[in-house]
Amino acid sequence: MALPRIFQCLLVVFCTSVSSVVAEYQQIDDSKCDCYLTNGTDGNYFATHKFFDFRSLSQYANVPGIIDDQSQSTDAEATSDYFLSREWTESWGTQQWNNSGNFNNGDAAVFMVNSLNNVYIEKNADSNAGSETFLTLRTARLDNFQSAAEFESIPTGYHFLSLRMYARTIGAPGAITAMFTYRSSDDPMAVQESDLEVRTEDPPEFIQYTNQPSYSRSGNILEAATRNASVPVGWDNWAVHRLDWSPTSTSWYVDGQNVSQISFQTPRDPSQVIFNAWSDGSEWVGNMTEGDAAYFQIQWIEMVYNMTGTDKTTDAYQRVRSRLSNGIASRDDASCTNICSIDATQEIGTAVLIQGTNPSPAGSSSFTTEATSWKGILIGISCSDMIERAKFGL
Ligand SMILES: *[C@@H]1O[C@H](CO)[C@@H](O)[C@H](O)[C@H]1NC(C)=O
Ligand SMILES: *[C@@H]1O[C@H](CO)[C@@H](O)[C@H](O)[C@H]1NC(C)=O
Ligand SMILES: *[C@@H]1O[C@H](CO)[C@@H](O)[C@H](O)[C@H]1NC(C)=O
Ligand SMILES: *[C@@H]1O[C@H](CO)[C@@H](O)[C@H](O)[C@H]1NC(C)=O
Ligand SMILES: *[C@@H]1O[C@H](CO)[C@@H](O)[C@H](O)[C@H]1NC(C)=O
Ligand SMILES: *[C@@H]1O[C@H](CO)[C@@H](O)[C@H](O)[C@H]1NC(C)=O
């Protein structure tokens, strides 16, 4: 149904006034946020916010040549001091393991070595570059092995999160680039994992989202565990990829659009966060042609999360969590006076106050943000949606 022109105009006027409400949220220092509420139909509350910004690291830019020897790849050193800084080492561990351990019992067909040499800061040479630099994870096929890249979070107690990255993947078919939560187990069927996986063999408009394991013990695909989803921005273009792991489901978004939601096998227990770029010649990944490479490029990573011990969650705790997260998460923590958002901000990486009081710096009177303003955001969003629909005569 195409809206008559006059209604389109009224809608634009009304919606413009609503979105000015959105712009009013005040930027606030994280130290003043008691919790963070994520947007979307299943918004959740989280305790902590972290932002890793790789956009202005020109002093560390260095694209090292590919090392074509297996052992030298394993032994390679960090590509710049950035990866030796506390900012990096306190949060991430760059990996050096290889797949010799699972080579014979898995379906891997190619030896793979993770190398520090494949994790580096690179100058952004795009025309109209949106940043000075970005972080690159490189995976390259040499004549007798696949050189790969991975970094894993140092904390292993992430217990529900909303994880975002501004990233793209470019390069040859036969690789996977991935952002995921991971809790290992000796039993492959007991691994807990929510995945975003780009298969460079696939068309850019498709990304695979999975709550592992995706195969049953007898080797059948668990259809409910995985989605091959079409995405509004191809993985070869810059986009914000978001993975929301909640007690009841994992949801994935591309540039704010919901692209997949899986409740089957939602991870229950504290987990790590991992990013990688790899290939091992297995059916799932394919073989990369010798001499080729693929690149996972990331401008920033942002997350809001809860952290617990690394112990397995008890079933009783899990039942309580599920009750609390029925529908929109209830505010079950009385200590959360200042509710912040990383979604409603005008400046990526910063938080804004959406409910609560912010003591003014100069000791002048504090102000209170309208509790109803969050609704303003929701209206603002459906408005822009309505404008889009009106524009396209839907
Ligand atoms: C949530 O906020 C993001 C910006 O971070 C926006 O792109 C997205 O459309 C919003 N989604 C919903 C469902 O409100
Ligand atoms: C995160 O922890 C807070 C308490 O600190 C709790 O209110 C909230 O529901 C938790 N979020 C999730 C998604 O479990
Ligand atoms: C591969 O890993 C194994 C086990 O950690 C190690 O013994 C071996 O030296 C590694 N191989 C290479 C080429 O780094
Ligand atoms: C996902 O779907 C696309 C389009 O049909 C297809 O080309 C691609 O191979 C599929 N990927 C997987 C892993 O099934
Ligand atoms: C997100 O999209 C998936 C797949 O289209 C759908 O099944 C799910 O209900 C959507 N979730 C929300 C919260 O809209
Ligand atoms: C990749 O190549 C190896 C031989 O080097 C082969 O054994 C394996 O089956 C190939 N994988 C695929 C998915 O074709």
Would you mind describing this structure in some detail?
This protein is of the alpha+beta class. It folds into two domains: 5-34 and 337-391, no CATH class; 49-307, Sandwich (Jelly Rolls). 15% of the residues lie in helices and 35% in strands. The chain is built from five helices and 22 strands. The protein has helices at 5-23, 70-75, 86-89, 315-324, 373-391, and strands at 26-28, 35-37, 45-46, 48-53, 92-94, 112-114, 119-123, 133-141, 146-153, 158-171, 176-183, 192-199, 206-212, 226-230, 239-245, 250-254, 257-262, 272-278, 293-307, 339-341, 351-358, 367-369. The strands form two sheets. The chain has a 16-stranded mixed β-sheet that branches. Strands 1, 2, 3, 20, 21 and 22 form a six-stranded mixed β-sheet that branches. Helix 1 (5-23) packs antiparallel against helix 5 (373-391). The chain is globular and about 60 Å long. The N and C termini lie close together (5 Å). Residues 9-22, 315-332 and 361-394 have low confidence and may be disordered. It binds 2-acetamido-2-deoxy-beta-D-glucopyranose (6 copies).
CATH class categorisation of the largest domain: Mainly Beta
Name the CATH architecture of the largest domain: Sandwich
Structural class: alpha+beta
The helix/strand order is HEEEEHHEEEEEEEEEEEEEEEHEEEH
Show unreliable segments: 9-22, 315-332, 361-394
As a percent range, the share of strand residues is 35-45%
Biggest β-sheet, characterized? 16 strands, mixed
Separate helix tally: 5
Bound molecules: 2-acetamido-2-deoxy-beta-D-glucopyranose
Give the helix proportion (percent range).
10-25%
Q: Average pLDDT, to the nearest integer?
A: 85
What is the terminal-to-terminal distance? 5 Å
Shape: globular
Gyration radius over CA = 22 Å
The count of DSSP E runs of length 2 or more, i.e. the number of strands, is 22
> What count of structural domains?
2
Task: Write the CATH fold name of the largest domain.
Answer: Jelly Rolls
Domain GH16: 23-309
Protein name: Glycoside hydrolase family 16 protein
GO biological process, one term: carbohydrate metabolic process
GO molecular function: hydrolase activity, hydrolyzing O-glycosyl compounds
